[in-house]
Specification:
The complex is a heterodimer of chains A (about 425) and B (about 325). Chain A is an alpha/beta fold and about 425 residues long. Helices cover about 50% and strands about 15% of the residues of chain A. In chain A, the strands form three sheets. In chain A, strands 1, 2, 3, 6, 11 and 12 form a six-stranded mixed sheet that branches. In chain A, helix 2 (about 50-65) links the parallel strand 1 and strand 2. In chain A, helix 8 (about 200-215) crosses helix 10. The two termini of chain A are about 20 Å apart. Chain B has 15 helices and no strands. Chain B is flat, with a radius of gyration of 26 Å. With about 325 residues, chain B is an all-alpha fold. In chain B, helix 10 (about 225-230) packs antiparallel against helix 11 (about 235-245) and helix 12 packs antiparallel against helix 15. Classes of the chains: A alpha/beta (about 425), B mainly alpha (about 325).
Amino acid sequence: MMANITRVVAGVALASSVLALSACSDSTETNPSASDAPVTLTWWHNGNNDPLLTFWADVAEEFEAANPHVTIEIEAIQNEDLQRTRIPVALQSGDAPDLFQQWGGGELAQQVDAGHLMDLTDVLADDIDRLGGAVAPWSYQDKVYGLPYTFGVEGIWYRPSLFEAAGIDSEPATMDELVDAVEALKAAGITPIAVGAFDNWPAAHWWYNFALRQCSKDVLQASGISLDFSDPCFVEAGQQLEDFLAVDPFNEGFLATSAQQGATSSAGQLATGNAAMELMGHWNVFVLRGILADEGIDVDALNADLGWFPMPATTGGKGDPTAALGGGDGFSCYVDAPAECAELLAYISSDDVQRRFAEVVGGLPVAPNAASSVTDANLVELAEVAGNAGYVQLWLDTTYGNNIGTAMNAAIVEIFAGIGTAQDVVDDMTEAAANQ
Amino acid sequence: MQTKEASGTRPDPADTMSAGSDSETKPEKKTRTPEQVRRRGTARKWGEISLFTGPALLVFLIFVVLPVGLAAYYSFYNWNGIEDLDNFIGLDNYRRAFGDSAFVHALRNNLFVIVMSLLVQLPVALAVALVLNRKFRGRSFMRMVIFAPYILSEVITAVLWLLILQPHGPLDAWMENLGLGGLRELWLADLNLVMWTVFFVVSWKYIGLAIILFLAGLSGVPKDLQEAAAIDGASWWQIQRRINIPLIAPTIRVWMFLSIIGSIQLFDMVWVLTRGGPAGASNTIATYMFQYGFMRSQYGYGSAVAVILFFLSLIAALLYMVFVLRRDNIDEGKRR
């Protein structure tokens, strides 16, 4: 009963804000005075480091200059704190920021179900068309509740010089070739692959990739909604991971290795040339450079000696061999946010800001018109792989939402630790789904 | 409690020393006042009590009692923290906790820290305190050095050790230099070793507190007792065993109490060092609760774990009060 009432109230609020929005968007062009009442927008994002921190501040200033009645208050918060604590608590308290970071997928669906997000389908219809398919993870039940500003797929980042030292002359295209490369690197005394299992998700991404290749597109996509993991392909993915772990391809003490913090992290080991490979998303190039900058090491050596190739193909799976795992960052408006929130979001995803996001920040933009602004060779290759992919599956933990996602990641790490089995992962996911 | 506070409000300081039962009648005898005046005195007394304890009580109610009550309320729901609180599941969250091997493992880890603290920290701290209680050059410096880790916050301590314990980190390098390279271990990545590592870091930080407490206790032991024993021919060791240690027993018991409660609530250090990992091997109840409550957005279940943690602390505290600390309180009463 309570739920229904809140939903109705939320629905009314939503409807009225949509009305207000459409009213404004009609009038802003011709008659700005209609919406000149001072408005303050709060904006929470995860860009708590430069260059993104300064970039978002600049974008906010530009928007304020173009809309003098709007004041934007930014709060930049560390990613995990923002995602796991600040946003859920703010949404629950009813005093949420107007514009906030949105990772899409199952988490977005939960927030929509609870009536927290503004429906942008009609208000930003033009922008949604302009951005194309990348908006899909920010949609739920055919409605759009957020816009991404960056999206990319993952693959293996590696140091060509170390491959050369180990006598590997081509990028591994199949798992067998990857295993050969691992053996060659070990024979040359080089740590083959770094993985930050301390953070759980970097280890879990190996399993995701096996699942992506092992499960058919239909099974994988249906599992995001039905939360049914009974298809044998999920257990097979874990078995492939077990087989790969038997080769011992990862860095010493990987269970206590973090992903992105300092020179001893998995990214740090790759950046300093202490490991040859790391499976990681499109953001990795900035993480690598950032770690070197923090350690006071010149980044030129890294820039000249960094390669990328897609996750090697497995055999016997039902999945699309060209499919890729990916994810991105975007923003949603709170359901009660002023109409200007959607305008700010439209500005953030505009072609101009997206181009500068590529040029100034070095990020991988979503807007097709900004694609030509990407110059980094690895990112260009990565964008090509994403463009040619049969389909791009959102990170599985994001797809399944916090609860199942975290349970899944923890169970996968237990395989890494040698105390869990392929079946345990599926069991834990099923149990988490039952407790949802 | 109440009688003490009440007697404290009276102007005559000598009265505060008197025992409870006759403190109520005394003012009457002294001033021989009629009933109204006594009543006014009572009103005044309660006015003062509420004035002084009111604000603290209010803060306590809002920030301690209310959240505990709310957590208990949430613990009966399956709630993800975002949607409405409408899925009442009774005691299922509690059943789930005790049926979860990861939770039981976390519980065991807490027990491990409690037992090891008492078995290892207590003798070491006592020995160090007895040694530092003797007069020698550089004693204050030694005391300061030993207490220094306690001043650091748990998070800073954990980050410090996290850096030291990295594979190929400072500790490994140091061991290599000493020729102990063969004993090098994956201190934080080994499932069987990680709790010992955590316990070591916890001890490194908290043993200073035990030592300082014991030293304070020792400074309260009357010198004449020790001198008399020495004159009677007691050795240094006999003086410690027969006089010093028995006389600081109340201090030791209070330290044990703090240590047990601290071990039950252990969170910051573990969270920064291992985040309960690898694969849950170093989870404590508190990190387990955080994982479910926040990381997995199972606020209802996390609340149930919090309530269990609360009751464990409460029961431990009450049992300790009743069976161990009570003796000290009775002794004090007798002494007066």
